[in-house]
Design goal:
Elements lengths: L1 H5 L12 H5 L1 H8 L2 H27 L5 H19 L28 H15 L3 H20 L5 H24 L11 H13 L1
Length: about 200
């Protein structure tokens, strides 16, 4: 309450106050002066988004572990509803690129960051099956992604912070959903052939 009553609100005609934008002001100026660098960073970010999607698809199709895919569906559904409910303006200093995801620099929802939430969901799934080094790599890339999104003004700081929380929340909700359906989440499952071996072992015993 001390914070609420001592910080004045931003006037309606003024741009939003974002500390993440202030912290990345130098990086923003550097990217703005080098359009090729903006496109390169956007392309690398798009590759990272593709890596997230590939891992989540691999988990459900190859390893038969649906939790990450269900969490992602829940996360994007909620994001779409929130994005339709309150549409935030693009920052005045937004640096778009045709290499960014969604590819072609089409319209997108600001709140919350699906880039960040998707990476968190993938990272949590990796930790469940013991892929800690890969999860650490995804966390580092997610952090770099967040800094880049701030620097090019593709998201507000609050979008990124809530994106982390959304990834954790919907991963947890997906787990509860699977528990309620009595579905084996396969958290110790490495592949379908291993599961067949376990089934045959139970039958012979």
């Amino acid at each position: 309450m001390q914070v609420e009553y001592t910080i004045p609100m931003v006037p309606a005609a003024a741009p939003p106050l974002d500390l993440g934008f202030i912290a990345t002001a130098t990086m923003h100026a550097g990217i703005a002066a080098r359009p090729w660098l903006n496109s390169l960073l956007a392309a690398l970010n798009t590759v990272f988004v593709a890596m997230q999607a590939a891992y989540i698809l691999w988990a459900i199709l190859a390893e038969q572990r649906p939790r990450a895919a269900i969490a992602t569906l829940m996360m994007f559904t909620c994001r779409g509803l929130l994005g339709c409910s309150t549409q935030l303006p693009l920052p005045a200093e937004f640096l778009g690129s045709g290499m960014d995801f969604p590819v072609g620099n089409v319209s997108f929802f600001l709140f919350y960051s699906g880039h960040v939430a998707g990476a968190v969901i993938a990272s949590l799934d990796m930790r469940r099956v013991g892929r800690h080094r890969l999860a650490g790599l995804y966390d580092a890339l997610n952090l770099a992604q967040g800094v880049r999104l701030l620097a090019c003004r593709g998201h507000y700081t609050i979008d990124l912070a809530v994106g982390v929380g959304a990834g954790i929340l919907f991963d947890m909700l997906a787990g509860r959903y699977l528990d309620s359906k009595n579905v084996d989440r396969g958290e110790t499952r490495c592949c379908s052939s291993c599961q067949k071996a376990l089934v045959s072992q139970k039958l012979t015993s």
